[in-house]
């Protein structure tokens, strides 16, 4: 599966800062010091209704991670999946009377267009669940053969007790885990499971649903968590730098994925940091496909909204915060974009050297994009009030905002 085209990232003078970021597993900030190649895995969409503002906010956060690392002169090995076969996708296809593969292809194509418009840097590897199945089956068989998985009425489940570190990502108690499992794709009430929290690794073929050859597992399709584990281990290996996604993925998805990988390899941890973006709400509730309270990037683009303003709306909120989409937050971003473009359109201005370092410092401090925007606001205000004599300053500001914030002025 192909990703989307990369926008050019301008090279800036000097050197960026190493990133300190909040790690869900430890509950506090960690300093990341990747080698020459920083490794990141971000969980992708289930392509049946893309791309709403919750998606955009999540991918914006991890785009900033990439940009901070690139500014330190590192390479970035970024991997993202597409869950192109799953219950919600199949249910939507039945509801709309369309082929599930056509729906997945259509929504994935739209997602690519939205990511391109928002100047999100693409992953090096963009992998669909279906194309990953040949690599998933052997992992499930290994877990089963090691006693870390078991069969129940043809389905194969992972035993959470096989990983002594289970629970170390989300730190939730068993009651909270059980409730979230039921809400987020698990089946804790199924009779016969060794532990209600045990997640499915391989679902035996169901009538009327797609299935694939699972070798000794029989025909079926993969569970959600093992999909990402297979892709991450194949392309990044254990101990990669950042596992990312929305905060609703901390449990069960990232918790279960970590346990799968740790049980498979005997190594700990799967990722050095588990990083989670906050939720975006509308009308007092989290945006979600099940509720239908969504604001879509593609719809805003069709209405003529500048994608740079959409991105500035996202950047105005700290990536870990939960926030609400309103007409006002978009209007504020449009006004900010106009001010910035007016400021950099002049032939000279106040010196920008301190501004570059201020933006670097803000982003290195747990991706503090609101502080970075405030710094640019202050430079633009000085430009408006008194101008300046530095002929190169507006160009430096424009390149810096593009390179570090992904906003083209």
Count of the separate structural domains: 2
Low-confidence stretches: none
CATH class placement of the largest domain: Alpha Beta
Biggest sheet: strand arrangement: 5-4-3-10-11
Name the descriptors.
409 residues; alpha/beta; Rossmann fold; Four Helix Bundle (Hemerythrin (Met), subunit A); 2 domains; five-stranded parallel beta sheet; four-stranded antiparallel beta sheet; 15% strand
Please outline the helices and strands:
Blueprint: E1 20-23, E2 28-31, E3 37-42, H1 53-71, E4 75-82, H2 87-96, H3 100-117, E5 125-128, H4 129-145, E6 149-152, E7 155-158, H5 174-183, E8 200-204, E9 220-222, H6 224-235, E10 240-246, H7 250-265, E11 271-277, E12 280-282, E13 285-286, H8 297-302, H9 307-315, E14 323-324, H10 327-344, H11 353-364, H12 369-386, H13 393-405
Parallel strand pairs: 3-4, 3-10, 4-5, 10-11, 12-14
Antiparallel strand pairs: 1-2, 6-7, 7-8, 8-9, 12-13
Helix pairs in contact: 4-6, 6-7, 9-10, 10-12, 11-12, 11-13
């Amino acid at each position: 599966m192909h990703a989307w085209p990369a926008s050019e990232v301008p090279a800036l003078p000097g050197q960026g800062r190493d990133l300190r970021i909040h790690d869900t597993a430890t509950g506090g900030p960690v300093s990341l010091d990747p080698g020459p190649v920083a490794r990141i895995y971000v969980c992708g969409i289930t392509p049946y209704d893309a791309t709403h503002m919750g998606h955009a906010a999540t991918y914006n956060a991890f785009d900033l991670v990439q940009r901070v690392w690139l500014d330190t002169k590192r390479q970035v090995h970024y991997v993202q999946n597409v869950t192109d076969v799953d219950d919600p996708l199949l249910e939507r296809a039945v509801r709309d009377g369309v082929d599930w593969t056509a729906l997945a292809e259509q929504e994935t194509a739209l997602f690519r267009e939205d990511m391109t418009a928002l100047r999100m840097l693409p992953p090096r590897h963009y992998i669909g669940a279906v194309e990953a199945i040949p690599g998933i089956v052997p992992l499930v068989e290994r877990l089963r053969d090691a006693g870390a998985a078991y069969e129940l009425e043809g389905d194969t489940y992972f035993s959470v007790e096989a990983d002594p570190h289970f629970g170390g990502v989300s730190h939730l108690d068993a009651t909270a885990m059980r409730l979230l499992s039921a809400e987020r794709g698990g089946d804790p009430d199924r009779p016969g499971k060794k532990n209600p929290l045990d997640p499915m690794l391989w679902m035996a073929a169901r009538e009327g649903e797609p299935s694939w050859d699972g070798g000794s597992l029989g025909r079926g399709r993969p569970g959600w968590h093992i999909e990402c584990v297979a892709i991450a281990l194949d392309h990044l290996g254990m101990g990669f730098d950042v596992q990312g996604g929305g905060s609703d993925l901390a449990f069960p998805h990232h918790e279960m994925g970590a346990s799968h990988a740790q049980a498979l390899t005997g190594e700990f941890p799967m990722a050095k940091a588990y990083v989670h973006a906050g939720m975006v709400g509308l009308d007092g509730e989290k945006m979600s496909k099940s509720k239908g309270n969504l604001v879509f990037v593609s719809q805003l683009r069709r209405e003529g909204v500048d994608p740079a303003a959409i991105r500035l709306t996202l950047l105005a909120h700290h990536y870990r915060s939960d926030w609400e989409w309103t007409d006002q937050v978009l209007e504020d971003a449009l006004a900010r974009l106009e001010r910035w473009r007016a400021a950099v359109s002049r032939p000279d201005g106040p010196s920008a050297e301190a501004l570059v370092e201020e933006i670097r410092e803000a982003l290195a401090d747990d991706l503090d994009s609101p502080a970075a925007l405030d710094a640019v606001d202050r430079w633009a205000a000085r430009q408006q009030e008194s101008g300046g004599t530095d002929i190169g300053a507006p160009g430096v500001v424009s390149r810096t905002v593009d390179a570090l914030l992904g906003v083209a002025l």
